[in-house]
Amino acid sequence: MNEKYEQLVADYLAGSLDEEGKLRVEQLIANGEIELIEFKAIEQLHDELDVIVTPAPSPDMSTGFYAMLEKEKAASRPFSFSVAEKLKALFAELTMPRLAYACLLLIVGGFIGDQFGRNESKLEELSAEMQDMRQMMMVSMLEGASTTDRIRAVNISAELPVADEKAIQALLFTLNNDKSINVRVQTVEALSRWGDNEMVRQGMVNAITNQDSEVVIIALADAVVSLGLKNSAKELEELLKYKELDINVQQKLQTSIAALL
Amino acid sequence: MMKVKGGDLDKLGLLFERYNRPLFSFFYRLTSESSLSEDLVQSVFERMLKYRSTYSGNGAFTTWMFSIARNAHIDHYRKNKRYNDIEDFDEERIGEAPPEYAEMDERTRRKKLLELALNKLDPEKKEVVILSRYEGLKYTEIAEIQEVSESAVKVRMFRAMKELKDIVNTLSEEYSDE
Question: Which of A111, B109, B137, B157 lies at 20 to 30 Å from B96 by C-alpha?
Fold first, then answer.
């Protein structure tokens, strides 16, 4: 068979021939220029190649990648030599939420100091106000565009002894919708601290089937087992049933389900 | 990728989430080794970061990515002096049927034969089959990756399929005689 016909058959196999091209192939087969039996055998073999499937990579591949990325990010941060450059970098990092947070802490700190001398009984009240402000700041930063800011916001929640409904809602929204896997994993850890709150418990269970990242799924599975959320077994089973997961993740979920039941 | 080039390295995470499976499959089909394939995927993303300034944004991202993947694979085997070491298929030296072949059902046997046959193709032809048939790349994109003309890729594809057919038939006959 000459090379032009070989190219034509290759195009046919790739499905890139228009009607005219297909007609040309048929004509060449009819004229005996392309051997029918060989053409059909090759076409069938091309279809059959679907049966060769590949396994899924292990979760280690993802872990290795994100470790490499973090290292690269740390290495690519500019190193400032002079005080002026350092100050410039510091001001460059002062986004509005961070600046507002710093000002609030300064004002509240000053106010507490002032009140402490006059009236110790107001201390608890002020402390509660400060916590409210932290919560407000956390919610605001969670909506920010920068991944680093959102991770910091999640970490601020660790400083809060108790969380109100709005803060929990914001964290649950982040768990279900944030595009960054790192942020979602951190959010699972943050929410786990308030594992005795019913809204958190239910929210974490509901979030299981929303996850597309196997790293987050594993973090959630660990969290629901350590919190003893037995009603999450059903959600984990649904994931196993309907989602295409790596074999190691499947085994992890099966172990988690067994631990919950 | 343009955002990664511009310094937003977090965006590489999105590219990883989207392309780690196709890349892993590409390497697995070339090497049949899971652990090595995972290492090569990692190497591709390291190279993307290292050479991000060379990404022009012209053409499909997948073409650039698979060019890097192909080079990573070639470099690995050059280090191990095995690239292009695959001997031409020799009917006289087929060897014994794989273990458990006799106990396999018809479908599993066929799958095994196809896998063996694919592994007996020379690297260029095997790449064309994998990139076209499994990764869904166009011949023009494969031509860019292999740095040959589009017609050369088409000829390679046709000849690879013809060779596959012949190898499958030979293996099937030989193993059924054992």
Answer: B157
Is residue B24 in a domain? yes
Of A3-7, A22-26, B10-14, B92-96, the range with the lowest mean pLDDT is: B92-96
Residue B87 located in a structural domain:
no
Closest to B36 (Cα-Cα) out of B66, B80, B68: B80
Q: What is the pLDDT of residues A198-254, one digit of tens each?
A: 888 899 988 988 888 888 898 899 899 888 888 888 888 888 888 888 888 888 888
pLDDT tens digit sequence for A118-158: 666 666 777 777 777 777 777 777 877 777 778 878 877 77
Which amino acid would we find at residue B72? A
- Separation in Å, CA B82 to CA A190, B74, B86, B103, B126: 49, 9, 8, 33, 15
* Residues spanned by the domain of B121: 98-177
Residues from chain B that touch A52, judged by Cβ atoms under 8 A, are 29, 111, 114-115, 118
CA angle A172, A173, A179 (to 5 degrees): 115
Looking at chain B from residue 118 to 157, which residues have their Cβ under 8 Å from any Cβ of chain A? 118, 129, 132-134, 138-139, 151, 153-155, 157
Tell me, yes or no, whether B31 lies in a domain: yes
**Rg, chain B, Cα only:** 18
How many domains is chain B built from? 2
- In this structure, the answer to whether residues B9 and B41 fall within a common structural domain is yes
Say if residue B44 is in the same domain as residue B114: no
Q: Are residues B13 and B75 in the same domain?
A: yes
